[in-house]
Amino acid sequence: MADRTNSGARHLNEQTALFELQEQIAAATTEPDKETWQRLLNNAQGLHQAAIASGDEESANLGWFLAEATSCWGGYISVFKDLQHGLYYKAWCEMERIEISLMNIKNNVSGDYDKLGLSFLNSQTQAFQVLFPYTVFFSPEIIVGYELCSICRTRINPWRSCGHEIGRIYGGRLCCRLAHDIELVSISIVRKPVQKYSVGFSKDDDGNTIDQHDYATVKFVIDRLNSPLDQFSAEWIKAYHPHELFAHVSERDACPCESGIAYGECCRERPGVIRPHLQVLFEKEPPADLPTVQLAGYDGYGRVGGKLQF
Ligand SMILES: [Zn+2]
Ligand SMILES: [Zn+2]
């Protein structure tokens, strides 16, 4: 009896600590400070592990939620800093981690999803991803020998399931499959990858990886945001680009809109050449000394490759 009372009291203490932490996390969502988020993450992970160890399912699951949400916030704050410092690919990989984590949260605690400002994180990371120039990715094809359930370690096959669902939380732990005896069959080049981090980079003559991407669109936005909490949206649309930019293209050449038709029979008769155009809306007005419009991909003589600002 005495033992049961003690463990009941311990579970109650655990729950109280978790609810207090939840309040602190909610308060910190107006605080873009990296150290605050690191401290909250340490607390959340500590309480999560303690709750798993004590075996209280409800506390363990709440601990998981708080640790995930906190790591998403901390990750997002560092994404913002990395983008300011030009560490684009690093920020890209972290955003993919945040995206997966937010999806796992949504699948498990849909009712609490927005309690800790997670819809904001979701829309901001999506808006940043839209700005990235990555178009080509690698996708490995692998043969898996066998898989174990991460929760109960049962060997999974098409005829036998342990009942644990991938992506769901059991006792504070996320269910996934542990793949064994993996064989890599091939690597494909794809446009829509399963893993977004598998970006294609070039190599120089000495075999060093070089980043050949033009991050003008990412830089345009990050330079105009003051804080990670400043909201923006971004959308690729089509817009007329002035004919002056294509002065070197003759009427008989292929139209720069890439329709495959001659310039003279396509956009030449229109108010401009129809080209992709990134439209960004800022919640707060950007600094007045920065231009509000930027052309990327042209030089001053209308040739593709340089940049022109006005
Ligand atoms: Zn299982
Ligand atoms: Zn055209």
Structure write-up:
This protein has 6 helices and 11 strands. Helix content is 38%, strand content 22%. The chain folds into 3 domains: 2-131, no CATH class; 137-201, no CATH class; 231-309, no CATH class. The strands form 5 sheets. The chain has a 3-stranded antiparallel beta sheet with strand order 2-1-5, with no helix packed on it. It has a two-stranded antiparallel sheet with strand order 3-4. Helix 1 (2-28) runs parallel beside helix 3 (57-84) and helix 2 (34-54) packs antiparallel against helix 3. It is of the alpha+beta class and 310 residues long. The chain is globular, with a radius of gyration of 25 Å. One zinc ion (ZN) binds next to loops.
Helix/strand/pairing category: alpha+beta
What series of H and E elements makes up the topology?
A: HHHHHEEEEEEEHEEEE
| Spans where pLDDT lies below 50 across 5 or more residues | 300-310
Rounded Rg: 25 Å
Strand content: 15-25%
